[in-house]
Amino acid sequence: MSSKGVRIWAALFLPIAALPLLCAQKVVSSVPGETTEQYEVRMKWWRDAKFGIFIHWGPVSLVGTEIGWSRGRQIPVEVYDNLYKKFNPKKFNPKEWARLFKDAGAKYVVIVTKHHDGFSMFDSALTDYDCMSTPAKRDFVGELVKACRQEGLRVMLYYSLCDWYHPHYLPRPNYIQDPPGHQRDFQRYLEFMFGQIRELCEKYRPDGIWFDGGWEHKPQEWKAEELLKMIHQILPNEIVNNRTGLPADYDTPEQHVGAFNMNRAWESCITLGTQWSWKPNDRIKSLRTCLRLLLSCAGGDGNLLLNVGPTPDGEIEERQAQRLREIGEWLKKFGEGVYGTRGGPFLPGRWGSSTRKGNSIYLHVFNWDGDRLVFPPIEAKILKAKLLSGGEVKVVQTEQAITVIVPQKYHQELVTVIRLDLDRPAITLQPRQGPEVPTPKAHASNVFQNNPSFGADKAVDDDETTRWATDYGTHSAWLEVDLGKPMKIGGVKILEAAEFGERIRKFVVKCKVNDEWKTVLSGNRVGAEFSHKFPPVTAQAWRLEILEATEGPTIYEFRLLPARD
């Protein structure tokens, strides 16, 4: 995986003209000559699954740096390459992992078998640089494949084409000096690579291969067509991603939600923390963010592959495990609008996302315009509307618009899910833009180096990976938010970038009433997550005033919570 951080919500949506109905284009797949119908049959389990778990794990977890990318950079090569000699994860229990993934609501698992660092986490006859040479002497991949299958989970295997450890891999990493007289032979590496992929297919019979690292060569240099042909000769129904350089079966946007696309299967791979492999005290994404990622992917007709990084002891740390269980609990209640659905017809946006299945549309609402949302008309009659969390929902359908009204007391802080039952199959509806929801405007007394990347708007963008930051030496600052119209607010949630230090020591929250600023809340420390309710107040302008800070304060999110009457 790439080490570059990318904004989670950086999805670009295609114009309506570029959004024909399902299967309107000729299929492009990993099987030459395959018909659209054959492709869809082979891909059905994967499309229906919507949610998978990615596992990046290996000896590098001993030092807590990024897998592959820290070799020769943060960690000297001679140290990195010998970590396996100390890798003995005595608490590794594949049955517990598999049970956790099932409890999370995931339907498939992608296991890293070899990353760019060249270490094989499976028992390979082609190298001694593998799991059987560790003190554990366990086939980690084999044990995990078996455990996942026992829990009814599909299994795909990740394999990095590039290998910065192998003595014959080219191009040679610039931080490596070969012994005098050593001549690299890329053909010998390709024979090794083909051999290992054959091993993976024949020994573990996976449901798919997830390639990575293909950017260092052209597809013909990897012999990618020959590679895919070999895979399908062994496993005809195998699913293969696009990272050999060939389109294959599906695309893999990384660290961001993919664009709406019903003609090309896709899967966003995104970390639960901030790096792929385990990192001590890493910042874990909130349940709110994880659900919105999942629903934005499903609403765009894609999948979410959410990554966990196990510890060097062989455990999935409790913070990550708890988040997965929370996702699973939500899916037990609302999974009907996720599993087995297709994206649309309303395009994802700030308002939320939509999915469809049978004669139903599911609206996953993140943000409201007061108590309602106004959707464009559809070429079907709405027979019934249901709020899946319980409560009142009213739908007014005309030739010009569909207005969905839910009293604020029934709005859910995580996601509000509404099912619309139609008089015809929902898949027949053409995609169209979703409703517009006003975006809060914000400005601040100070922005770090006047850099827009740290502007005030980053604190109100519903993205917990961006932040408002202030200059070093700033000990007091304010952030002002304009909601666009008066709204009834009953609480606040503040997410401080606590990994840089809990800097805030005293703050107040104010709102403007009759042209005067009124204090509705005062407090001391904020920390990673601060949440507080107060008597509802109707106002358009709000302020967070940081009165004392040890250093320049920085905030991921300043979230005003609508009152629930």
Question: Would you mind describing this structure in some detail?
Answer:
With about 575 residues, the chain is an alpha/beta fold. The N terminus is likely disordered. It contains nine helices and 22 strands. The protein is globular. It starts with about 35 loop residues before the first helix and ends with a strand. Strands 5-4-3-2-1-7-6 form a seven-stranded parallel sheet. Strands 16, 17, 18, 19, 20, 21 and 22 form a seven-stranded antiparallel sheet that branches. Strands 8-9-10-15-12 form a five-stranded antiparallel sheet.
The helical percent reads 10-25%
Major sheet strand order: 5-4-3-2-1-7-6
State the end-to-end distance: 46 Å
- Rg from Cα: 25 Å
**Broad shape:** globular
Q: Which residues form runs of ≥5 with pLDDT under 50?
A: 3-24
Quaternary arrangement of the chains shown? Answer: single chain
β-strand number:
22
- Which whole number gives the mean pLDDT? 94
**Sheet with most strands:** 7 strands, parallel
Strand content: 25-35%
Helical segment count? 9
Structural class: alpha/beta
Short description:
With 565 residues, the chain is an alpha/beta fold.
Structural topology:
Elements: H1 36-49, E1 51-55, H2 77-80, H3 94-103, E2 108-114, H4 140-150, E3 154-160, H5 186-204, E4 208-212, H6 219-222, H7 224-234, E5 239-240, E6 267-271, H8 287-299, E7 303-308, H9 318-334, E8 342-343, E9 352-357, E10 360-365, E11 372-375, E12 382-387, E13 394-397, E14 402-405, E15 416-422, E16 441-444, E17 468-469, E18 477-496, E19 504-513, E20 516-523, E21 530-549, E22 554-562
Helix pairs in contact: 3-4, 3-9, 5-7
